[in-house]
Amino acid sequence: MTNTTMQAHGLTVPEPVSGQRSNRHAAAAVAALATALAWSAPAAADSDEYFRPVTDETVKTECSACHMAYPAGMLPARSWRALMGDLSNHFGEDASLPEETRAAIETWLTANAASDGSRIGRSMRDGDPVLRISETPWWVRAHRGEVSPAAFDSPKVGSKANCSACHRGAEQGYFEDD
Predict the structure, then answer these.
(1) Residues 6 or more apart from 68 whose CB is under 8 A from it?
(2) Which helix (H) or strand (E) holds 60?
(3) pLDDT given at position 16
(4) Does 43 have pLDDT greater than 50?
(5) Residue 74 DSSP class
(6) How many other β-carbons are positioned within 10 Å of the β-carbon of residue 50?
(7) Of 136, 65, 72, the residue nearest 97 (C-alpha)
(8) What's this model's pTM, rounded to 2 decimal places?
(9) Helix (H) or strand (E) holding 5
């Protein structure tokens, strides 16, 4: 055994006993990969172009009966709680659900909502929760100068709520410019 060390991807790894060189390289590679994934995962989750799509079947079924099942990460938990707390007046529609279904959807949405530390969470002011995704600061910034207000009223789009009209991958969580 030796007391020497080596540097691998910013990590200090002890030199192995003779014959264990491949294990040392494997360990260094795993450490480097773990570090890269740890740094990239928050960036991917906190993006204006990608949001984890809805994976819960109840949320998909109930929400997409009237509109796209929006990714929960587009709003903070307090906004989802407010929306789910007044389904009898859901943007002028009665979207009431049996309490068990409503509670299950609210639980999933709040568990997967934008965190307070995320880009979306940080952009939200304290006070009344924002109920429309299209009124959140990040949405307004993302569309300012990109889309004319008249485009949202066009027959092809219909409203700001119709993400799929411009973002073909919206149902899968991709909102990059198409």
Answers:
(1) 161, 162, 163, 164, 170, 171
(2) helix 57-63
(3) 54
(4) no
(5) G
(6) 18
(7) 65
(8) 0.69
(9) strand 5-8
Q: How many residues does the chain have?
A: 178
| Res 36 pLDDT > 70 | no
Point out the least confidently predicted range of 18-22, 36-40, 54-58, 61-65: 36-40
Residues 6+ apart with CB under 8 A from 10: 35
Pair 109, 97: CB distance under 8 Å: no
pLDDT per position as a tens digit, 82-103 = 999 999 999 999 999 999 999 9
In the numeric block, which tokens belong to residue 142?
């993302």
- Categorise residue 113: left if φ over 0, alpha if ψ from -120 to 50, beta otherwise: beta
Helix axis angle, 99-111 relative to 77-84, nearest 10°? 170
